[in-house]
Design brief:
- Helix 4 packs across helix 5.
- This protein has two domains: about 270 residues, Carbamate kinase; about 150 residues, Aminopeptidase, CATH 3.40.630.
- It is elongated.
- A hairpin with a 2-residue loop joins strand 7 and strand 8.
- The chain contains 16 helices and 25 strands.
- The strands form six sheets. The protein has an eight-stranded mixed beta sheet with strand order 5-10-2-1-13-17-18-16, with helices on both faces.
- By secondary structure, it is α/β, with parallel strands linked by helices.
Length: about 450
Amino acid sequence: MDTRSPDSTAYARWFRASTPYIGKHRGKTFVVMLGGDAIEHANLVNIIHDLALLSVLGVRVVLVHGARPQIDRALAARNLTSKYEGHRRITDAPAMEVVEATVAVVRSTIEGWFSTGIPNTPLHKARVLVVSGNLVTAKPLGVIDGVDHEHTGRARRVDAKSIAELLDSGALVLISPLAHSPSGQAFNLNAEELAADVAVSLKADKLIVLDRSGRLGNQTMTGADQAFSELTPRDVEALLSETELNPVTRMRLTELLRTVRAGVDRAHLVSYADDGALLEELFTAAGSGTQVSEQEFRHIRPAGIDDVAGIAELIRPIEVEGALVKRPRERLEQEIDRFLVAELDGIIIGCCAVYPYAADNMAELACLATHPAYRDSHATDRSLGDRLLHKAESQVRGAGIGTLFALTTQAREWFLERGFNDADITDLPKSQQQIYNHQRGSHIVLKRLTNPHD
């Protein structure tokens, strides 16, 4: 008798699914931007614990923090007025004194949170060494469009070598939005710009910006009530053209775009309000936020022998449900050259196989399977199943074959919605007619590939 609770079973499945990501992220450099709004949120303690967990798992973490709302309050308490030019604060001498004091308090608070380890876990005694210092050299912004920004500046140089050495030692590096020029003058820096500059200088693997929005959506991009787990830089530019975007989120999205354009592979916008959102974004196929990358996120390619285990793991639950015919591992190995796979972060999240019957001018699409997180078309601009089908159709056309067919027990409507038509056993290649499983009773669907162009 299985006495495990549903929560235990779900946890076990999640942990199994996350395991490949643990190895993939180990040794990688992630720059995380934690704004002043996130620092004030009730979920901060969970975020700090999750960042500590990343460090324990071998991720090289650089944390850039902000302090905008804290500075606003401190200025108001002294009856000083905050002046802004765009998203930048104009920092005069009296304001700079407040900025220096406030940033110091915020930095100390963050260091204190990391000193607690990871409570209520076996890692509660784990020591996360947090190191900060003069790792960024500043320069003044000067006069822009006739406005003197006074003590507001930006990064002149990031000491990437020293940061890398600190990360090599196992430390978590903490960088504040305050830096000095070579002459010793202090400058107030924009935390979002600073995080992007640090990520680019370090050639980081990821920039992660924590924002209230988390996963972005925009009704004007690809359909009503659409949520976007993945965006290309071109998509981001389109999103930024929308005036309804929250100003703070707009600023952060702009820096994500700049970072990716400058060569950082992946940039993420993740919610600071949702407990576990950071871990979900990094350790699950579906993620929780919005990822920006120049690369094709779900790269579809011909399968190789090293993909057999990933394909077997993907299709196993679908075989158990009866939606796919069970394929022994030996058969997968023998027929691996017939498969296409969709890959995300090194994980197989989709597959299909194409079997040509050239003498009949036909090909079979078989074993079309996707990870559950990518089966719903509302999750992306086009579902993963659509992309696999499109790739398979292109392959069939490239071989000069004009008809694609499939046998399905549970996905007939899905195929009909994509241009397939119901067919009969007599429409199949003769060799397939002879081995058709009447007991299984699969629907036969067929599509004429009349367009020769991809």
